[in-house]
Amino acid sequence: MGLRLRGPRDGSVGGRRGWRAVGAEEGLEAMAKGGGVAAAETDKTRASAQRVLDALSRLAEVASLPEVTTRILEVVEDPCATARDMHQIIKSDPALAAKVLKVVNSAFYGVPSQIASLERAIVMLGISAVKNIALAASLSRLFRAEAISEHFAARDLWRHSISVAVAARLIAARSRRASTDEAFVAGLVHDLGMIALRQLFPHKTRSLVDQAMNHPTQFAALEQELVGISHALIGAELATRWRFPPLLRSAIAHHHRPERAPTEHAAVTRVIYAADVESCRARYGFWLSAGGVDLSPADLDAIGLTAGQMEALVAEMARLVEEAEQVFSE
């Protein structure tokens, strides 16, 4: 089943009606057929919902996951998987194996001594860390595409994703509220929906970016007006079809509204929100999706950091973003 947004059983989050991701096609079909309050209001709304349904049906046109990434995700979801299983998968793709070792031995990862083999990397770092490094390394292939608009080059979305991943890892390490490896991968994939929007709605996405350049604080509103669906929602739908773990799907779906994330995924999602805001403020790559947004005292409290700590962390980002981009890029 796809993803839609529906209020949770507890009724509200933070004084507003809460939402959770549960399956877009089902809810959008009801809208398109006139079921539901919002869609029943106008034919225009129903037509818009139908266009979104048509777009979701075309998600298969979006670049598919590399086979090795699919196999890594299967291991991620298998509680019986062993270090040997992960080793065999990574070893079967020589380019990926070389990249994993490159990442492990980079200044970005900071291991105390050189690691010469995958077996040694798994023993020293653990299967979870190596799994996330392999997943991150293989995902860089998804970001090969044409420019979003004349304002942003083809790799600007990748650079933004890298910067959010780096910031998320730093925040998680400093606050100890979330796993650093999980935060890094979630940061890397949080804007997966922008890839889908760019491929499914190239002209609308270009128009969205052009208008948002003049009104950066209005990105979300412009996205709904011009495209009819948010990149967060369509990204979560794509992640569901690709069988991403629930944590990653939640981070993608709720990275602009972390209060809507399920309780078990709230910590990582709030970290991704903060990392995204700070990356956009620093204008690393594609910065419009959270342009003009500032972290509130409540946002900082939710991730366990002070304003001073966040300022120091942002200063540390610059060097690490450059290093991460070098080791994870093709």
Attribute tags:
globular, Hypothetical protein af1432, single chain, 4 strands, disordered N terminus, 2 domains, 2% strand, two-stranded antiparallel sheet, mainly alpha, 330 residues
Descriptive report:
It is a single chain. By secondary structure, the protein is mostly helical. The chain has two domains: 1-57, no CATH class; 58-328, Hypothetical protein af1432 (Orthogonal Bundle), CATH 1.10.3210.10. The chain has helices at 24-32, 37-40, 43-57, 67-77, 83-91, 94-104, 118-125, 127-139, 156-175, 180-189, 192-200, 202-214, 219-226, 231-241, 246-254, 266-281, 297-303, 307-328, and strands spanning 5-6, 12-13, 16-17, 20-21. Strands 1-4 form a two-stranded antiparallel sheet. A two-stranded antiparallel ribbon has the order 2-3. A hairpin with a 2-residue loop joins β2 and β3.
